[in-house]
Amino acid sequence: MSTPETADFQSLLATAHAAADRAGAVILPHFRTNSPADHKGGDLFDPVTIADREGEKAIRVVIEQAYPNHGITGEEGGTVREEAQDRWVIDPIDGTRSFMLGLPIWGTLIGLTREGEPLLGLMDQPFTGERFWSSESEAFFSHQGETRLMHTRSCTSLGEALLATTSTDFFTTDDEHRRFGDLTRAVRLRRFGGDCYNYCLLALGHIDLVVEAGLQPYDIIPLIPIIERAGGIVTTWEGGDVRKGGRVVAAGDRRIHQEAVKILSD
Length: 266
Fold this sequence. Notes:
This protein is α+β, with helices and mostly antiparallel strands. The chain is about 30% helix and about 30% strand. The strands form three sheets. It has an eight-stranded mixed sheet, sandwiched between helices. It has a five-stranded mixed sheet with strand order 12-11-13-15-14, with helices on both faces. Strands 1-2 form a two-stranded antiparallel ribbon.
């Protein structure tokens, strides 16, 4: 993993915070207003709203002003300067379905990769006023003017694990449903919904496992530094590199991650 100079990293992190502030100011007025959503296509309803589009534009403006030579990949606006050493990866509203329902379990994701390696990540929830982010070696949570370190919690066996997933709708094959079912029968509790919020609550020490399928790179890259620097681990179901998205398993404790991978990789 990259280890940038402190001053450089702090400047990059300040830009991420500024972009999140700008996005929140644009997105929040649309929340709980029943604004219409368009369907991007596909069998499963994939919504996009004006808040998604305007939020991403706001983030891009902040980044372009601070670092005009950096690459940017966003869910709504695609990729510019893909070959840049530093490339921002953004999802203005991760959890648009929850956003449409008025549920405050969506978030703005802003990440940065350096030569392809996740360098920093930030998740902002402007409605609740919560923000989660990574420093060079740690992860932080802020709410109501207070900031504290985040740490995943110890969990020695799947029988004690609390598991979250957004929806089984994203498991597209019988085999994926079977593997997920095998895992959920081994854990203590499973809950649905949450999107990016689940990963941040794992970093905060409240959830032990998050299992998903069908993720895009912008859904997971900003969350990788948050999870890892809080002490967790995130991989594919087979235990591999998760930067391309797909099927994802995150754990706060490496011991139950190994157990989960054994089940999910069949």
